[in-house]
Amino acid sequence: MSAAAMTSLERLQTTMGHQEPDRVPFVISVTMQGARELGLSIQEYYSKAENIVEAQLRMFRKYRHDALNPTFYGALEMEAWGSPTSFRDDGPPNAGPPIVNHFDDIAKLVPPEIGASPRLQEALKAIRLMKSKAGDTIPLLGVVVSPFSAPIMQLGFDLYLQLLFERPELFARLMAVNEEFCVAWANAQLAAGATAIAYVDPASSSTIITREMYLKTGWPVAKRTIARIHGGVATHFASGNCLPILGDVAETGTVAVGVSALEDLATIKAACRGRLTVMGNLNGIAMRHWTPAQAVAEVKTAIAKAGPGGGYVLSDNHGEIPWQVPDEILLTIADAVHTWGRYPLDWIRQEGLA
Amino acid sequence: MERGSEDWVFMAGQQNLVELFEQALLAVDSLEAERLLTAASHAVLPMQLIDEVIAPALERVGEKWERGTAALSQVYMSGRICERLVDKLLPPESPVRTLRPKLAIVVLEDFHFLGKNLVKSALRASGFDPLDWGHATLEELVNRVRTEAIEVLLISTLMLPSALKIKELRAKLDAAGLAVKLVVGGAPFRFDPQLWREVGADACGQNALEAIEIVRGLLKTAENGKAQA
What we know:
Chain A is of the alpha/beta class. Chain A has 16 helices and 9 strands. Chain A has one domain: TIM Barrel (Alpha-Beta Barrel).
Protein backbone atom coordinates (compact mmCIF):
# COMPACT_ATOMS: atom_id res chain seq x y z
CA MET A 1 0.00 0.00 0.00
CA SER A 2 1.35 3.40 -0.95
CA ALA A 3 1.49 5.81 1.97
CA ALA A 4 0.28 8.60 -0.32
CA ALA A 5 -2.96 6.75 -1.07
CA MET A 6 -4.20 6.30 2.48
CA THR A 7 -7.86 6.75 3.23
CA SER A 8 -8.93 8.46 6.45
CA LEU A 9 -9.60 5.08 8.03
CA GLU A 10 -6.17 3.73 7.04
CA ARG A 11 -4.54 6.93 8.31
CA LEU A 12 -6.16 6.60 11.72
CA GLN A 13 -5.54 2.86 11.95
CA THR A 14 -1.87 3.33 11.07
CA THR A 15 -1.30 6.02 13.68
CA MET A 16 -3.17 3.98 16.29
CA GLY A 17 -0.82 1.12 15.46
CA HIS A 18 1.97 3.54 16.47
CA GLN A 19 3.30 3.81 12.93
CA GLU A 20 3.63 6.94 10.81
CA PRO A 21 0.85 7.26 8.20
CA ASP A 22 1.03 9.57 5.14
CA ARG A 23 -0.10 12.57 7.18
CA VAL A 24 -0.98 13.42 10.76
CA PRO A 25 -4.66 12.44 11.09
CA PHE A 26 -6.85 15.37 11.90
CA VAL A 27 -10.21 15.16 13.67
CA ILE A 28 -11.82 18.53 14.11
CA SER A 29 -14.71 18.40 16.56
CA VAL A 30 -17.28 20.34 14.57
CA THR A 31 -20.72 19.52 15.95
CA MET A 32 -23.24 22.38 16.26
CA GLN A 33 -21.41 24.18 13.41
CA GLY A 34 -23.58 21.96 11.18
CA ALA A 35 -26.50 24.28 12.00
CA ARG A 36 -24.58 27.24 10.57
CA GLU A 37 -23.70 25.16 7.53
CA LEU A 38 -27.38 24.49 6.82
CA GLY A 39 -28.67 27.91 7.88
CA LEU A 40 -30.74 26.45 10.75
CA SER A 41 -31.03 27.26 14.44
CA ILE A 42 -29.14 24.83 16.67
CA GLN A 43 -32.39 23.37 18.02
CA GLU A 44 -33.84 22.96 14.53
CA TYR A 45 -30.60 21.39 13.33
CA TYR A 46 -30.68 18.68 15.99
CA SER A 47 -34.35 17.88 15.39
CA LYS A 48 -33.69 15.55 12.43
CA ALA A 49 -31.06 12.91 11.65
CA GLU A 50 -30.98 14.01 8.01
CA ASN A 51 -29.66 17.45 9.01
CA ILE A 52 -26.72 15.98 10.90
CA VAL A 53 -25.87 13.63 8.03
CA GLU A 54 -25.97 16.37 5.39
CA ALA A 55 -23.97 18.86 7.46
CA GLN A 56 -21.33 16.39 8.64
CA LEU A 57 -20.66 15.22 5.09
CA ARG A 58 -20.39 18.84 3.91
CA MET A 59 -18.02 19.73 6.76
CA PHE A 60 -15.94 16.62 6.11
CA ARG A 61 -15.25 17.91 2.61
CA LYS A 62 -14.84 21.51 3.72
CA TYR A 63 -12.33 20.92 6.53
CA ARG A 64 -10.71 17.90 4.86
CA HIS A 65 -10.45 16.07 8.15
CA ASP A 66 -10.47 12.36 8.93
CA ALA A 67 -13.65 11.40 10.76
CA LEU A 68 -17.36 11.99 10.77
CA ASN A 69 -19.11 12.87 14.00
CA PRO A 70 -22.67 11.55 13.83
CA THR A 71 -23.34 12.17 17.52
CA PHE A 72 -25.75 14.89 18.54
CA TYR A 73 -24.67 16.36 21.93
CA GLY A 74 -23.85 15.13 25.43
CA ALA A 75 -27.21 16.03 26.93
CA LEU A 76 -28.96 13.70 24.47
CA GLU A 77 -28.31 10.77 26.80
CA MET A 78 -30.02 12.65 29.61
CA GLU A 79 -33.15 12.94 27.48
CA ALA A 80 -33.35 9.14 27.60
CA TRP A 81 -33.17 9.38 31.41
CA GLY A 82 -36.10 11.82 31.39
CA SER A 83 -34.37 15.20 31.61
CA PRO A 84 -35.19 17.88 29.04
CA THR A 85 -32.41 19.59 27.10
CA SER A 86 -32.17 23.35 27.02
CA PHE A 87 -31.16 24.80 23.66
CA ARG A 88 -29.50 28.11 22.95
CA ASP A 89 -28.52 29.91 19.79
CA ASP A 90 -24.84 30.37 20.54
CA GLY A 91 -23.59 27.16 22.11
CA PRO A 92 -24.08 23.47 22.73
CA PRO A 93 -27.38 22.17 24.07
CA ASN A 94 -27.21 21.80 27.82
CA ALA A 95 -28.66 19.18 30.14
CA GLY A 96 -31.57 20.49 32.19
CA PRO A 97 -31.91 20.23 35.97
CA PRO A 98 -30.61 17.02 37.59
CA ILE A 99 -32.93 13.97 37.63
CA VAL A 100 -31.56 12.81 41.00
CA ASN A 101 -32.17 15.39 43.68
CA HIS A 102 -31.93 13.14 46.72
CA PHE A 103 -29.72 10.14 47.33
CA ASP A 104 -32.88 8.06 47.86
CA ASP A 105 -33.74 8.51 44.17
CA ILE A 106 -30.74 6.36 43.19
CA ALA A 107 -32.40 3.14 44.36
CA LYS A 108 -35.29 3.81 41.96
CA LEU A 109 -33.13 4.45 38.86
CA VAL A 110 -33.57 2.02 35.99
CA PRO A 111 -31.37 2.16 32.86
CA PRO A 112 -33.43 3.50 29.96
CA GLU A 113 -34.13 1.14 27.04
CA ILE A 114 -32.31 2.36 23.92
CA GLY A 115 -35.25 1.26 21.75
CA ALA A 116 -37.74 3.18 23.89
CA SER A 117 -36.05 6.58 23.45
CA PRO A 118 -37.13 8.40 20.28
CA ARG A 119 -34.15 10.74 20.53
CA LEU A 120 -31.58 7.96 20.82
CA GLN A 121 -33.31 6.26 17.88
CA GLU A 122 -32.96 9.48 15.87
CA ALA A 123 -29.23 9.51 16.65
CA LEU A 124 -28.91 5.87 15.55
CA LYS A 125 -30.75 6.75 12.36
CA ALA A 126 -28.11 9.46 11.71
CA ILE A 127 -25.33 6.87 12.11
CA ARG A 128 -27.04 4.40 9.75
CA LEU A 129 -27.67 7.07 7.11
CA MET A 130 -24.18 8.50 7.40
CA LYS A 131 -22.63 5.05 7.14
CA SER A 132 -24.62 4.30 3.99
CA LYS A 133 -23.31 7.50 2.38
CA ALA A 134 -19.74 7.49 3.72
CA GLY A 135 -18.89 3.86 3.00
CA ASP A 136 -16.03 2.00 4.61
CA THR A 137 -13.17 4.44 4.22
CA ILE A 138 -14.25 7.24 6.53
CA PRO A 139 -14.44 6.49 10.27
CA LEU A 140 -17.65 7.39 12.12
CA LEU A 141 -17.01 8.23 15.76
CA GLY A 142 -19.79 7.34 18.16
CA VAL A 143 -19.81 8.91 21.64
CA VAL A 144 -20.89 7.83 25.11
CA VAL A 145 -20.67 9.69 28.39
CA SER A 146 -18.87 7.32 30.78
CA PRO A 147 -20.89 5.74 33.61
CA PHE A 148 -18.55 7.52 36.03
CA SER A 149 -19.07 10.96 34.46
CA ALA A 150 -22.81 10.76 33.65
CA PRO A 151 -23.72 11.58 37.30
CA ILE A 152 -22.38 15.11 36.74
CA MET A 153 -25.57 15.58 34.68
CA GLN A 154 -27.75 13.12 36.63
CA LEU A 155 -27.08 14.58 40.09
CA GLY A 156 -25.15 17.79 39.52
CA PHE A 157 -21.45 17.91 40.24
CA ASP A 158 -21.54 18.81 43.91
CA LEU A 159 -24.11 16.24 44.98
CA TYR A 160 -22.15 13.66 43.01
CA LEU A 161 -18.92 14.47 44.85
CA GLN A 162 -20.74 14.13 48.15
CA LEU A 163 -22.02 10.73 47.04
CA LEU A 164 -18.55 9.67 45.95
CA PHE A 165 -16.95 10.49 49.28
CA GLU A 166 -19.78 9.86 51.70
CA ARG A 167 -22.09 7.15 50.28
CA PRO A 168 -20.02 4.37 48.68
CA GLU A 169 -22.90 1.85 48.68
CA LEU A 170 -25.11 4.19 46.65
CA PHE A 171 -22.21 5.00 44.34
CA ALA A 172 -21.87 1.28 43.54
CA ARG A 173 -25.59 1.04 42.77
CA LEU A 174 -25.45 4.12 40.51
CA MET A 175 -22.45 2.73 38.61
CA ALA A 176 -24.21 -0.61 38.06
CA VAL A 177 -27.19 1.17 36.48
CA ASN A 178 -25.04 3.55 34.42
CA GLU A 179 -22.74 0.80 33.16
CA GLU A 180 -25.73 -1.12 31.75
CA PHE A 181 -26.95 1.94 29.89
CA CYS A 182 -23.50 2.98 28.64
CA VAL A 183 -22.66 -0.49 27.27
CA ALA A 184 -26.04 -0.79 25.55
CA TRP A 185 -25.78 2.71 24.04
CA ALA A 186 -22.20 2.18 22.81
CA ASN A 187 -23.02 -1.18 21.26
CA ALA A 188 -26.16 0.19 19.60
CA GLN A 189 -24.03 2.88 17.93
CA LEU A 190 -21.50 0.29 16.77
CA ALA A 191 -24.30 -1.92 15.44
CA ALA A 192 -25.71 1.06 13.53
CA GLY A 193 -22.35 1.63 11.81
CA ALA A 194 -20.08 3.62 14.14
CA THR A 195 -16.43 2.66 13.65
CA ALA A 196 -15.31 3.37 17.22
CA ILE A 197 -16.59 4.93 20.42
CA ALA A 198 -15.33 7.99 22.27
CA TYR A 199 -15.68 7.29 26.00
CA VAL A 200 -16.03 10.76 27.50
CA ASP A 201 -14.84 10.70 31.09
CA PRO A 202 -13.94 14.13 32.51
CA ALA A 203 -14.82 13.10 36.08
CA SER A 204 -11.91 10.63 36.03
CA SER A 205 -9.44 13.34 35.05
CA SER A 206 -6.77 14.40 37.51
CA THR A 207 -8.34 17.85 37.45
CA ILE A 208 -11.33 16.40 39.28
CA ILE A 209 -10.12 13.44 41.36
CA THR A 210 -6.79 12.18 42.66
CA ARG A 211 -5.14 9.11 41.17
CA GLU A 212 -5.84 7.27 44.42
CA MET A 213 -9.56 7.98 44.04
CA TYR A 214 -9.47 7.15 40.32
CA LEU A 215 -8.04 3.71 41.04
CA LYS A 216 -10.96 3.04 43.41
CA THR A 217 -13.71 4.51 41.22
CA GLY A 218 -13.41 5.68 37.59
CA TRP A 219 -10.73 3.13 36.70
CA PRO A 220 -12.57 -0.11 37.58
CA VAL A 221 -15.74 1.36 36.04
CA ALA A 222 -13.85 2.06 32.80
CA LYS A 223 -12.25 -1.40 32.76
CA ARG A 224 -15.59 -3.17 33.23
CA THR A 225 -17.42 -0.97 30.74
CA ILE A 226 -14.82 -0.88 27.95
CA ALA A 227 -14.43 -4.68 28.14
CA ARG A 228 -18.12 -5.01 27.20
CA ILE A 229 -18.06 -2.55 24.27
CA HIS A 230 -17.76 -4.46 21.00
CA GLY A 231 -15.38 -2.09 19.21
CA GLY A 232 -12.42 0.26 19.59
CA VAL A 233 -12.67 2.83 22.39
CA ALA A 234 -10.91 6.17 22.77
CA THR A 235 -11.08 7.86 26.17
CA HIS A 236 -11.58 11.61 26.22
CA PHE A 237 -11.09 13.72 29.33
CA ALA A 238 -12.81 16.77 27.81
CA SER A 239 -10.20 19.38 28.83
CA GLY A 240 -9.32 17.61 32.09
CA ASN A 241 -5.71 16.74 32.95
CA CYS A 242 -4.60 13.11 32.81
CA LEU A 243 -0.81 12.92 32.99
CA PRO A 244 -0.73 11.30 36.49
CA ILE A 245 -3.05 8.47 35.41
CA LEU A 246 -1.91 7.70 31.85
CA GLY A 247 -0.30 4.39 32.83
CA ASP A 248 -3.57 3.33 34.46
CA VAL A 249 -5.69 4.58 31.56
CA ALA A 250 -3.64 2.37 29.22
CA GLU A 251 -4.83 -0.65 31.24
CA THR A 252 -8.52 0.11 30.80
CA GLY A 253 -8.58 -1.30 27.27
CA THR A 254 -8.80 2.07 25.57
CA VAL A 255 -6.58 2.72 22.54
CA ALA A 256 -6.41 6.52 22.57
CA VAL A 257 -6.68 9.45 24.93
CA GLY A 258 -7.99 13.00 24.39
CA VAL A 259 -5.85 15.44 26.39
CA SER A 260 -6.00 18.97 27.77
CA ALA A 261 -4.41 22.14 26.43
CA LEU A 262 -3.20 22.79 29.98
CA GLU A 263 -0.78 19.84 29.87
CA ASP A 264 2.41 19.68 27.81
CA LEU A 265 1.81 17.60 24.71
CA ALA A 266 5.43 16.40 24.47
CA THR A 267 5.32 15.09 28.04
CA ILE A 268 1.97 13.41 27.38
CA LYS A 269 3.29 11.84 24.18
CA ALA A 270 6.36 10.50 25.96
CA ALA A 271 4.14 8.90 28.62
CA CYS A 272 1.84 7.36 25.99
CA ARG A 273 4.40 6.24 23.41
CA GLY A 274 3.65 2.77 22.09
CA ARG A 275 0.69 2.31 24.45
CA LEU A 276 -1.91 4.98 23.75
CA THR A 277 -2.56 7.25 20.78
CA VAL A 278 -2.70 10.90 21.83
CA MET A 279 -5.52 13.16 20.57
CA GLY A 280 -5.28 16.88 21.09
CA ASN A 281 -4.72 19.49 22.26
CA LEU A 282 -5.56 22.77 20.50
CA ASN A 283 -7.20 25.19 22.95
CA GLY A 284 -10.76 25.66 21.64
CA ILE A 285 -11.53 28.56 23.99
CA ALA A 286 -8.41 30.53 23.05
CA MET A 287 -9.00 29.69 19.36
CA ARG A 288 -11.66 32.41 19.19
CA HIS A 289 -8.91 35.03 19.21
CA TRP A 290 -6.26 33.32 17.12
CA THR A 291 -4.95 35.04 14.04
CA PRO A 292 -4.36 32.80 11.01
CA ALA A 293 -0.59 33.00 11.66
CA GLN A 294 -1.14 31.93 15.26
CA ALA A 295 -3.34 29.04 14.16
CA VAL A 296 -0.55 27.78 11.87
CA ALA A 297 1.99 28.16 14.68
CA GLU A 298 -0.22 26.22 17.12
CA VAL A 299 -0.68 23.38 14.62
CA LYS A 300 3.06 23.22 13.94
CA THR A 301 3.89 23.20 17.65
CA ALA A 302 1.44 20.37 18.32
CA ILE A 303 2.74 18.29 15.40
CA ALA A 304 6.37 18.91 16.40
CA LYS A 305 5.64 17.75 19.95
CA ALA A 306 3.51 14.70 19.24
CA GLY A 307 3.64 13.80 15.55
CA PRO A 308 6.92 11.88 15.18
CA GLY A 309 6.50 8.10 15.31
CA GLY A 310 2.73 8.13 14.80
CA GLY A 311 0.38 7.50 17.71
CA TYR A 312 -1.01 11.00 17.30
CA VAL A 313 -4.24 12.60 16.06
CA LEU A 314 -4.38 16.39 15.87
CA SER A 315 -7.59 17.65 17.48
CA ASP A 316 -8.95 20.23 19.87
CA ASN A 317 -8.72 19.64 23.62
CA HIS A 318 -12.40 19.42 24.50
CA GLY A 319 -14.06 17.32 21.81
CA GLU A 320 -16.18 20.26 20.76
CA ILE A 321 -15.21 23.45 18.94
CA PRO A 322 -17.02 26.47 20.44
CA TRP A 323 -19.64 28.15 18.25
CA GLN A 324 -17.71 31.43 18.47
CA VAL A 325 -14.57 30.15 16.70
CA PRO A 326 -14.37 31.83 13.26
CA ASP A 327 -14.63 29.56 10.24
CA GLU A 328 -11.50 31.20 8.80
CA ILE A 329 -9.49 29.80 11.71
CA LEU A 330 -10.87 26.28 11.29
CA LEU A 331 -10.00 26.39 7.59
CA THR A 332 -6.52 27.70 8.40
CA ILE A 333 -6.00 24.86 10.89
CA ALA A 334 -7.08 22.38 8.20
CA ASP A 335 -4.68 23.89 5.65
CA ALA A 336 -1.87 23.85 8.19
CA VAL A 337 -2.34 20.14 8.96
CA HIS A 338 -2.33 19.32 5.25
CA THR A 339 0.82 21.43 4.75
CA TRP A 340 2.84 20.61 7.86
CA GLY A 341 1.42 17.22 8.82
CA ARG A 342 2.91 15.18 5.93
CA TYR A 343 5.28 12.44 7.04
CA PRO A 344 8.21 12.30 7.24
CA LEU A 345 8.11 15.42 9.36
CA ASP A 346 11.59 16.57 8.33
CA TRP A 347 10.79 20.25 8.89
CA ILE A 348 10.74 19.64 12.65
CA ARG A 349 14.46 18.89 12.66
CA GLN A 350 15.23 21.53 10.04
CA GLU A 351 13.52 24.21 12.13
CA GLY A 352 15.32 23.01 15.25
CA LEU A 353 12.11 21.89 16.96
CA ALA A 354 13.08 18.24 17.44
CA MET B 1 -4.84 42.57 74.12
CA GLU B 2 -2.33 40.40 75.96
CA ARG B 3 -2.23 36.76 75.08
CA GLY B 4 -3.01 34.25 77.82
CA SER B 5 -0.79 31.25 78.51
CA GLU B 6 -3.20 28.98 76.62
CA ASP B 7 -2.70 31.19 73.56
CA TRP B 8 1.04 30.62 73.66
CA VAL B 9 0.54 26.86 73.84
CA PHE B 10 -1.81 27.15 70.86
CA MET B 11 0.69 29.22 68.89
CA ALA B 12 3.50 26.73 69.51
CA GLY B 13 1.44 23.88 68.10
CA GLN B 14 -0.30 25.98 65.47
CA GLN B 15 1.96 25.16 62.54
CA ASN B 16 1.64 21.48 63.25
CA LEU B 17 -2.11 21.88 63.68
CA VAL B 18 -2.44 23.61 60.30
CA GLU B 19 -0.52 20.76 58.69
CA LEU B 20 -2.58 18.08 60.40
CA PHE B 21 -5.80 19.89 59.58
CA GLU B 22 -4.72 20.25 55.93
CA GLN B 23 -3.96 16.51 55.79
CA ALA B 24 -7.41 15.73 57.18
CA LEU B 25 -8.97 17.98 54.53
CA LEU B 26 -7.01 16.39 51.66
CA ALA B 27 -8.03 12.95 52.92
CA VAL B 28 -11.67 14.20 53.09
CA ASP B 29 -11.68 13.02 56.73
CA SER B 30 -14.30 15.25 58.33
CA LEU B 31 -14.19 13.42 61.67
CA GLU B 32 -10.46 13.97 62.06
CA ALA B 33 -10.79 17.62 60.97
CA GLU B 34 -13.49 18.18 63.60
CA ARG B 35 -11.50 16.34 66.29
CA LEU B 36 -8.46 18.55 65.66
CA LEU B 37 -10.49 21.76 65.86
CA THR B 38 -12.47 20.67 68.89
CA ALA B 39 -9.25 19.93 70.77
CA ALA B 40 -7.84 23.36 69.86
CA SER B 41 -11.08 25.25 70.52
CA HIS B 42 -10.66 24.89 74.29
CA ALA B 43 -7.66 27.21 74.14
CA VAL B 44 -8.62 29.95 71.70
CA LEU B 45 -11.49 32.04 70.35
CA PRO B 46 -13.45 30.74 67.32
CA MET B 47 -12.33 33.64 65.09
CA GLN B 48 -8.71 32.87 65.89
CA LEU B 49 -9.22 29.25 64.84
CA ILE B 50 -10.77 30.42 61.59
CA ASP B 51 -8.03 32.94 60.84
CA GLU B 52 -5.05 30.92 61.98
CA VAL B 53 -5.96 27.30 61.25
CA ILE B 54 -8.91 26.91 58.88
CA ALA B 55 -8.06 29.71 56.45
CA PRO B 56 -4.33 28.83 56.14
CA ALA B 57 -5.13 25.13 55.68
CA LEU B 58 -7.70 25.93 52.98
CA GLU B 59 -5.15 28.24 51.39
CA ARG B 60 -2.61 25.42 51.23
CA VAL B 61 -5.17 23.10 49.65
CA GLY B 62 -5.90 25.84 47.10
CA GLU B 63 -2.19 26.29 46.37
CA LYS B 64 -1.88 22.55 45.77
CA TRP B 65 -4.79 22.76 43.28
CA GLU B 66 -3.03 25.58 41.45
CA ARG B 67 0.18 23.50 41.27
CA GLY B 68 -1.82 20.51 40.05
CA THR B 69 -1.07 18.39 43.12
CA ALA B 70 -4.62 18.46 44.50
CA ALA B 71 -7.85 17.68 42.65
CA LEU B 72 -10.99 19.77 42.41
CA SER B 73 -12.90 17.19 44.45
CA GLN B 74 -10.46 17.70 47.35
CA VAL B 75 -10.84 21.49 47.12
CA TYR B 76 -14.63 21.19 47.09
CA MET B 77 -14.87 18.67 49.94
CA SER B 78 -12.33 20.68 52.00
CA GLY B 79 -14.48 23.78 51.63
CA ARG B 80 -17.58 21.81 52.56
CA ILE B 81 -15.97 20.35 55.69
CA CYS B 82 -14.68 23.77 56.74
CA GLU B 83 -18.04 25.41 56.07
CA ARG B 84 -19.74 22.96 58.44
CA LEU B 85 -17.07 23.45 61.10
CA VAL B 86 -17.24 27.24 60.82
CA ASP B 87 -21.03 27.07 61.14
CA LYS B 88 -20.52 25.26 64.44
CA LEU B 89 -17.86 27.67 65.66
CA LEU B 90 -19.64 30.73 64.35
CA PRO B 91 -23.39 30.23 63.80
CA PRO B 92 -24.87 32.11 60.81
CA GLU B 93 -26.47 34.67 63.15
CA SER B 94 -23.17 35.38 64.95
CA PRO B 95 -22.31 39.10 65.06
CA VAL B 96 -18.68 38.18 64.41
CA ARG B 97 -19.51 37.19 60.80
CA THR B 98 -18.43 39.69 58.16
CA LEU B 99 -21.67 41.06 56.76
CA ARG B 100 -20.02 43.55 54.41
CA PRO B 101 -19.65 43.84 51.53
CA LYS B 102 -23.11 42.57 50.65
CA LEU B 103 -22.31 39.57 48.51
CA ALA B 104 -24.33 37.36 46.23
CA ILE B 105 -23.12 34.34 44.30
CA VAL B 106 -24.79 32.79 41.28
CA VAL B 107 -24.49 30.48 38.29
CA LEU B 108 -25.38 32.24 35.06
CA GLU B 109 -27.68 30.35 32.71
CA ASP B 110 -26.55 26.73 33.14
CA PHE B 111 -26.93 24.14 35.89
CA HIS B 112 -23.31 23.49 36.84
CA PHE B 113 -23.20 24.45 40.50
CA LEU B 114 -19.89 23.00 41.65
CA GLY B 115 -17.78 26.13 41.16
CA LYS B 116 -20.36 28.35 42.83
CA ASN B 117 -20.72 26.05 45.81
CA LEU B 118 -16.98 25.70 46.13
CA VAL B 119 -16.48 29.47 46.33
CA LYS B 120 -19.50 29.87 48.61
CA SER B 121 -18.12 27.29 51.06
CA ALA B 122 -14.72 28.96 51.07
CA LEU B 123 -16.29 32.40 51.65
CA ARG B 124 -18.46 31.09 54.49
CA ALA B 125 -15.48 29.25 55.94
CA SER B 126 -13.70 32.60 55.98
CA GLY B 127 -16.51 34.32 57.90
CA PHE B 128 -18.31 35.98 54.97
CA ASP B 129 -22.02 35.53 54.43
CA PRO B 130 -22.85 35.44 50.69
CA LEU B 131 -26.42 35.18 49.45
CA ASP B 132 -26.76 32.09 47.29
CA TRP B 133 -28.98 32.82 44.29
CA GLY B 134 -28.51 29.41 42.70
CA HIS B 135 -29.09 29.63 38.96
CA ALA B 136 -30.37 32.81 37.31
CA THR B 137 -30.96 34.40 33.95
CA LEU B 138 -29.62 37.78 32.95
CA GLU B 139 -32.88 39.65 33.49
CA GLU B 140 -33.42 38.14 36.95
CA LEU B 141 -29.94 39.18 38.00
CA VAL B 142 -30.33 42.86 37.20
CA ASN B 143 -33.54 43.07 39.26
CA ARG B 144 -32.11 41.19 42.21
CA VAL B 145 -28.91 43.24 42.29
CA ARG B 146 -31.06 46.36 42.44
CA THR B 147 -33.65 45.23 44.99
CA GLU B 148 -31.17 43.56 47.32
CA ALA B 149 -28.53 46.31 47.04
CA ILE B 150 -25.72 43.90 46.20
CA GLU B 151 -22.22 45.36 46.29
CA VAL B 152 -20.30 42.39 44.91
CA LEU B 153 -21.75 39.75 42.59
CA LEU B 154 -19.73 36.58 42.13
CA ILE B 155 -20.59 34.69 38.92
CA SER B 156 -19.57 31.14 38.16
CA THR B 157 -19.74 29.70 34.63
CA LEU B 158 -18.72 26.42 33.06
CA MET B 159 -19.75 27.00 29.48
CA LEU B 160 -18.16 29.60 27.20
CA PRO B 161 -21.52 31.03 25.97
CA SER B 162 -22.57 31.60 29.61
CA ALA B 163 -19.28 33.39 30.28
CA LEU B 164 -19.80 35.60 27.23
CA LYS B 165 -23.28 36.54 28.53
CA ILE B 166 -21.59 38.44 31.36
CA LYS B 167 -20.77 41.17 28.85
CA GLU B 168 -24.50 41.70 28.31
CA LEU B 169 -25.09 41.64 32.06
CA ARG B 170 -22.45 44.32 32.59
CA ALA B 171 -24.12 46.51 29.95
CA LYS B 172 -27.55 46.07 31.56
CA LEU B 173 -26.20 46.81 35.04
CA ASP B 174 -24.42 49.91 33.76
CA ALA B 175 -27.57 51.07 31.95
CA ALA B 176 -29.50 50.64 35.20
CA GLY B 177 -26.88 52.72 37.05
CA LEU B 178 -25.90 49.82 39.34
CA ALA B 179 -22.30 50.05 40.49
CA VAL B 180 -22.04 46.43 41.62
CA LYS B 181 -18.60 44.82 41.28
CA LEU B 182 -18.56 41.68 39.15
CA VAL B 183 -16.17 38.91 40.14
CA VAL B 184 -16.10 36.00 37.70
CA GLY B 185 -14.62 32.52 37.65
CA GLY B 186 -14.87 29.09 36.06
CA ALA B 187 -13.35 26.92 33.37
CA PRO B 188 -13.61 29.33 30.38
CA PHE B 189 -11.62 31.90 32.34
CA ARG B 190 -8.89 29.36 33.07
CA PHE B 191 -8.53 28.47 29.38
CA ASP B 192 -8.58 32.12 28.25
CA PRO B 193 -6.88 34.42 30.80
CA GLN B 194 -8.05 37.58 28.97
CA LEU B 195 -11.73 36.60 28.90
CA TRP B 196 -12.69 38.34 32.16
CA ARG B 197 -11.59 41.71 30.78
CA GLU B 198 -13.41 41.02 27.52
CA VAL B 199 -16.71 40.52 29.36
CA GLY B 200 -16.28 43.62 31.51
CA ALA B 201 -15.75 41.94 34.88
CA ASP B 202 -13.98 43.81 37.68
CA ALA B 203 -11.92 40.80 38.67
CA CYS B 204 -11.43 37.12 38.00
CA GLY B 205 -10.77 34.49 40.64
CA GLN B 206 -8.91 31.50 39.22
CA ASN B 207 -9.82 29.61 42.39
CA ALA B 208 -11.86 30.00 45.58
CA LEU B 209 -8.99 31.56 47.51
CA GLU B 210 -8.41 34.18 44.86
CA ALA B 211 -12.12 34.96 45.07
CA ILE B 212 -11.79 35.53 48.83
CA GLU B 213 -8.73 37.73 48.35
CA ILE B 214 -10.62 39.76 45.76
CA VAL B 215 -13.60 40.22 48.10
CA ARG B 216 -11.25 41.24 50.94
CA GLY B 217 -9.54 43.70 48.59
CA LEU B 218 -12.87 45.21 47.53
CA LEU B 219 -13.91 45.50 51.18
CA LYS B 220 -10.66 47.28 52.01
CA THR B 221 -11.04 49.67 49.07
CA ALA B 222 -14.61 50.48 50.13
CA GLU B 223 -13.52 51.09 53.74
CA ASN B 224 -10.64 53.33 52.63
CA GLY B 225 -13.04 55.25 50.41
CA LYS B 226 -15.37 55.78 53.37
CA ALA B 227 -12.54 56.86 55.66
CA GLN B 228 -11.38 59.45 53.13
CA ALA B 229 -14.92 60.74 52.69
